[in-house]
Every structure is written in C-alpha cells, then in structure tokens.
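Hi! If you just cloned this repository, the fastest way to understand the data is to look at a raw example. We've pasted two of them here, unedited. The first protein comes first, obviously.
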Amino acid sequence: MEKFKYINYSLVFAMLVLGGCATKPNPLEKQMQQKEALKKQQDAEIQQKI
C-alpha cells in the first residue's frame, strides 16, 4: 500500500509541474505579441496622418 501512496504523490506533483509550465507564457510568444502591438500602433499612426 505504501508504494501506491508514493505513486499518487508523484503523479500529483507531475501534474502540478506540467500545469504550471502550460500556463506560464513563453518569452518568445510574449516578444511576438509586443511586436504585433507595436506594428498595430504604427499602422494606426500612419492611418491618422493620411
């Protein structure tokens, strides 16, 4: 019975770690989003000048 207790704890730990990795934003994705936002802002400024 002790074996199963440790297996359950390891599975819960693995799920928590994987869940944390899945929800943490990737730095590369963050950089891409910032570039997109900057481009949209520049496009809006160009449209205002026209």
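Ok, and the second one:
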Amino acid sequence: MKEALLYHRLNGQVQCDVCQRRCVVNEGRRGFCRTRLNRGGKFYSLTYGRVASISTNPIEKKPVFHFYPGSRWLSLGSLGCNFLCPGCQNWEIAHDRVELPEETYEFLSPEESVQLARERGCLGISWTFNEPTLWFEYTLEGARLAREQGLFTNYVTNGFMTEEALDTIGPYLDIFRVDIKGFSKETYHRVAHIKDFMGILKVTERAKHKWGMHVEVVTNVTPGFNDSEEELKGIASWIKDSLGMDTPWHVTRFYPYLHLSHLPPTPIQKLERAREIGLEIGLDYVYIGNVPGHPGENTYCPGCGRLLIERFVYEITLHEMEGGKCLGCGYQLAGRFGAVCKAST
C-alpha cells in the first residue's frame, strides 16, 4: 500500500480529495471506488503499481486523432472505477473490487513503465482501460518521469476528478481524452451514479485553458440513454463555446455489453445525425467511431474539405498533409502533427 497524496483527516474518518465524490471513509473501510482504504486514520492506495492491463497501441485507439497520428503509446490500466457504467467494455478490471489474486496482475514501478515505453519505441504513456485518477499517485510519478525522459502523457478519463488532482498532475499531462457521457443530470445518474456533471465540464475546461492540455471528447451514443438531439446538441454546443470549435468530438457506436446487453447497437444513421449536429453547430472535427470503414473516421480540411487523413479502424491508410497543414489550401489543423504522422504498422 502507498499513502494517498490527496486526502484530509476528519476525527478518525478521512475524506478523499481525488475524485468529485469526495468520499468520507470510516476506519477500516474503503470509498466508492474500493481502491482506497482508511487504516489508522491514514488513507492508502491499494492499486499503486498494480497493472491489470498492458499493451502498446496506436494513439487512434484512445481515440485521439490530432496528437501525432500514427504514433504508438504504452497503455496501462489498473483496477476499479468511480462510475461503474452499466455497459462498461472493461468491466472485468474496472468493476473489480481490487481482490484479484496476484497472478492476474503485475507490479510495474513508474521507473519501469517509462523504461518499457522507451524500449518499445513509444511516443508516450497512456493511462487507460480504467479510470486513471484512481491510481493517482502512480500516474503522477510516472508522468513526472515521462516528462523528464522526453515522453508524452495521456489520461483517458471520465473527467470526474477534483481540481486539486488536476492541478497536481497538470504540469505533467499532455493529453486529456475525456468521456462526456451525456448532457443531463438524468443521463449521468443512470450511467455513472452521480448527481451532477457540471464539475466534469469545469475540470475539462480547466485542463484546456489553465494547463494547455490537448483535449479530445468522446461520447458513446447509447440508445435510450444519451441519443436525443437535445443532449447531442448540448454536448456539441458546450464543446464549441467552452473548449473551442477546433476540439475533436468522437461520437462512437455503442455495442451491447454487460448490463446493457439487451440494447441494440447504435444505428449508424443516429451516429451520422450526431456528426451532422456537431458540424452544423460549428465544430471543425467530428468523428464517427466503432464503424470500421465509415468516412466519418477520416479527417477533412475545414478550409477546403480535402481528405487529409484516411483511417481504417486504428490504421492510417492515407495522409495528405505536411506539418499539420493541408496540401491543398495550406490550412493549419488544430493539434500536433509531424513526421510521426504516417501509415501505422
């Protein structure tokens, strides 16, 4: 166990300051996420260095499309979550109560994670698969070391962290790939078991404007949950007004899973309409995800409409730009591009 960094004591209880639930935890008990324990009036992380999933992936898998497309990243995930979404695709680790036997995970120190990323020729480290703030102390140390070694860093997050957590890791985090699961209290209550989602929006805005992180937004469009035009327009308008029209928005296809196995996959027409909504509101980049071969996977020039990056799943099959500029009209795309922008292997 490792003592938590962000908490304070309350007469034998402790209050967690990592996520916006701010759980007040009694002696010998854990918070909602089950990954932090009050022992003797001190708060401990139970998942420090416990890697339940490790792989090397293209950045497109996160999905992130405007940060060195085609680059490869060391992807690490641990145990637990502070949402427990009913259709979670990674529920085996995200919904785990941190009681898995040792043979189901491995210990990887922050130093070893950076070394492994360099050995595999990765551009950076991505903490993903489960909510990265839950092993905050570990990701913070890894991010600091990665920055020292010239590697980039990425959080694939639900955004439900406190401002204290964001500001602590902010100087060392390059990408904030956030899920916006809907745009109503009702949707977030059904999906994430939280009362309000405004804090998620504020933290995301802070990541962009205070810390200058590269932000991309994902909405998994789920039938009967968040697929109304009202909610989709709400998300698109917030992105434009609060993050900027050049912030990529990924509207991805839901597939039946876990407690939502009875639902149908998202109709492609619904995803196409979501993309239309984003473009009509004024977003420059709206992508359709989880529909291999759909033209909505591709990047087009906001200036002249030219096809600049063609994708198939996570592979780049064509790129017609140089240094982030359209070869047709010279329009400079938002994000970071360079020599790494080439066909994935």
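That's it. A detail worth noticing about the second one: The mean pLDDT is 94.
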